[in-house]
DNA sequence: ACTTACAACTTAACGGTGTTAACTGCTACC
DNA sequence: GGTAGCAGTTAACACCGTTAAGTTGTAAGT
């Protein structure tokens, strides 16, 4: 045997952990299962991570990075800040729908009482926030949006989107309400909370 | 001893479970700990609940009822639908801040992959939704709000509020951003997503 | 070449978890 | 008085995260 896996054990652990997470869900994510899946002992994980929480934090960091990457890409080639804001919302929603378990792990820290998400990883997490902030500033300059405190508004935009997807993914929506319709409606409301009424009308006239 | 506790064991279990939840958090909520705190064996819990999830669902139901009660009270004696909507948002936020663990347990089903929240309990959970819906309809009739689909809008309102509190409680907010300012700003954005631009201005003129 | 040192990894064990099965004691009815 | 059944128990299972101690292989030092 002796597969001589060149890939460092740390990377193999992270990869295996993500596999288990995606296939079995966070609740059934155990160190023993991760270790078994790559043929090492569970305690080997402690050679590279301080704790299970530490490993999960790495998973969270990874998920955030993937989400951020998608967000970064989506704004390029959009002509107006309003279109950019819409693209950000759409991309965020799509990511959550396409990778629900990966998305949900990002916000795990809250409902579980996990070890606080370390602040050095926090920094990376804020990149998506910076993206929203840029778009908002752009919108303010062009008169399409009006914000007294754009740096706070960028966070609220974020938070509102999360709430919508959280409700969808936890299947708390009334069965009589169509999921896609709900999401679309919610995005409209959120966006319209950031756009001046006039420019919203303008945008619609141009569109149709 | 034989304390002859008249209170049914089921109620004592629920009460003890809530105590443990509030003091130790969801993550450290174990059946053995609950049982120990009221001097019975852990397996006794299974005489009244199908599983730990079943017990937690009961806790969720309780928390939702308490939140709903607060929401019901807050809208009375508010003259305008806008004021009512603001009151709902404020009350929701206050509840989450005052009872963070109780609040977070409500949305536990999502991030943890818990047994699906049973639909008969779901019905009660929708009472708060009904409250928002009423206010929205009232606002539409009086011309202060405009919604094509109020029954969906009621959900989106809800979802956005949850997102905001979720971000606050998971301590994902930049330390440089003031928490209360963030919440206030977020509520303003959410509300303004439901109110006609004109009536928002009117409201402000009257206020100040 | 032989020892030493260290890194990478393992096994064994601790105290905890949810859950099931089998057992006990009590109380109410015939 | 016997018995059915309820309310609770103990014992056990298979799992969990985590720690301590042990093993193995390899590279360096002399």
Walk me through the topology.
Two copies of one chain form a homodimer.
Chain A: H1 9-24, H2 31-37, H3 52-75, H4 81-98, H5 100-106, H6 108-111, H7 119-125, H8 127-141, H9 150-169, H10 179-192, H11 197-207
The structure holds a DNA duplex (30 and 30 nucleotides).
Describe the structure.
Chain A is mostly helical and 208 residues long. The first copy, chain A, contains 11 helices and no strands. Chain A has helices at residues 9-24, 31-37, 52-75, 81-98, 100-106, 108-111, 119-125, 127-141, 150-169, 179-192, 197-207. The longest helix of chain A is centred in the N-terminal third of the chain and has 24 residues, at 52-75. Chain A is elongated. Chain A starts with 8 loop residues before the first helix and ends with a helix. At the A-B interface, α6, α9 and α10 of A face α6, α9 and α10 of B. The structure holds a DNA duplex (30 and 30 nucleotides).
């Amino acid at each position: 045997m002796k597969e001589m896996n060149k890939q460092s054990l740390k990377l193999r652990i992270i990869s295996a952990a993500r596999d288990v997470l995606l296939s079995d869900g966070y609740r059934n994510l155990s160190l023993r299962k991760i270790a078994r899946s790559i043929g090492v002992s569970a305690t080997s994980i402690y050679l590279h991570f301080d704790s299970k929480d530490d490993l999960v934090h790495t998973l969270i960091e990874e998920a955030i990075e993937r989400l951020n990457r998608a967000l970064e890409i989506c704004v390029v080639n959009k002509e107006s800040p309003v279109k950019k804001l819409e693209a950000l919302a759409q991309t965020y929603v799509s990511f959550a729908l396409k990778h629900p378990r990966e998305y949900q792990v990002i916000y795990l820290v809250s409902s579980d009482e996990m070890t606080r998400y370390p602040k050095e990883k926090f920094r990376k997490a804020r990149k998506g926030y910076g993206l929203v902030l840029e778009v908002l500033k752009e919108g303010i300059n062009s008169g399409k949006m009006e914000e007294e405190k754009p740096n706070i508004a960028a966070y609220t935009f974020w938070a509102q989107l999360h709430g919508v997807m959280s409700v969808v993914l936890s299947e708390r929506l009334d069965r009589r309400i169509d999921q896609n319709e709900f999401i679309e409606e919610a995005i409209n409301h959120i966006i319209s909370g950031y756009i001046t009424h006039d420019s919203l009308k303008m945008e619609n006239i141009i569109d149709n």
